[in-house]
Amino acid sequence: MTVTSQVDDTTSAVEPPKGRRQRKRRYTTLSRGDRFWLSVMVGVPAFLHILLVWIPVLATTALSFTKWDNLAPLTDIRAVGFQNYWFIFTVFDTNLFPALFNNFILVFWLFICSAIGMFFAYLLDKNIRGSRVYQSIYYFPVVLSLAVVGFIWKSTMFSRDRGLLNAIWPGGKVDFVGDGTKIFSFDLPFLDFPLGLSKNFAALLIAMAWRHIGYIMVMYLAGLKGVDMALREAAAIDGCNEWQSFRNVVFPALKPVNVVVAVITVIEALRAYDIIAALNEPRGTEVMGTLVTKSLLGEGGGRVGIGSAYGVVLLLLCVVFIIWYVTNHYRETEQ
């Protein structure tokens, strides 16, 4: 009896339970058809992503170390090392640093617009009267591209003769698009010229806010619907007022949405180009995207190496922020 019990104990210790063995077989065994469709669903998006994203990224990075006129054959490509980067940070610094300043101003402004969108979402989450109408009004600009938004604001809002802003402006006619004078400016020790915010770029910020606020509002409204009502009820029982409940309960529960909103806001600010192109790229509204296109297609275009160097700088700004923010967020979440 002792030997039999020891054998039984050894067998039960070595062999996994029958239910677990069957479960493992059920999840790991796929038929030939399942493997085919799984390969298609994974392989086709991966192929398109590599073809349309990573191959252009690698090609742009390689071209940033070369000198080439895009009208000449590929055999005329000549390696120049870091000469293009030296040019854009020294010779062409009158273009690079004002464009970077405008991009950073846009990052700061869109974060303010994101806070406004979150505030609107919080109000609409309370099911106020007419909330569906307000949602439709706020969300309407989101379905429009930034180029269309630029054309709308250029013709109906910013127009010097027929624009709505000039109709209600207390003073004389204002050229909201063409006035490139600085609202404020400041000097930096390593630059020979001041940096500042121009009036036409400030007008452009208003047009971008019109679209961005509605986009962020919808994202936060979806996130608020997923917050457990029991948390809010517990906060109310503990004596928290509206602001304390939002700051200590609701906002921490929205942390996944906050990560997505932060990444989207920075990317939208750094890659802004469409709305500026719709306004015919007036002086004072240069951003990194306009520098890239002007180097490749605009006046004095054909400088593929210079344009690629601008593009790599823009790519690094996006990638560094995304990696830093996401890494820190998930490290705090794990802790």
Overview of this structure, please?
It is built from 15 helices and four strands. It is mostly helical and 335 residues long. The chain folds into two domains: 19-79, no CATH class; 86-334, MetI-like fold. The strands form two sheets. The chain has a two-stranded antiparallel sheet. Helix 12 runs antiparallel to helix 15. The model is unreliable at 1-7 and 23-27 (pLDDT under 50).
Defining traits:
single chain; 335 residues; mainly alpha; MetI-like fold; 2 domains; two-stranded antiparallel sheet; 15 helices; globular
Task: Describe the structure concisely.
The chain has helices at 2-14, 18-28, 32-63, 83-91, 93-124, 131-139, 146-157, 164-168, 199-225, 229-237, 242-253, 255-270, 274-278, 288-296, 304-334, and strands at residues 66-67, 78-79, 182-186, 195-198. The protein is mainly alpha-helical and 335 residues long. The chain has a two-stranded antiparallel sheet with strand order 1-2.
Walk me through the topology.
Blueprint: H1 2-14, H2 18-28, H3 32-63, E1 66-67, E2 78-79, H4 83-91, H5 93-124, H6 131-139, H7 146-157, H8 164-168, E3 182-186, E4 195-198, H9 199-225, H10 229-237, H11 242-253, H12 255-270, H13 274-278, H14 288-296, H15 304-334
Antiparallel strand pairs: 1-2, 3-4
Helix pairs in contact: 3-15, 4-5, 4-15, 5-9, 5-12, 6-9, 7-9, 10-11, 12-15, 14-15
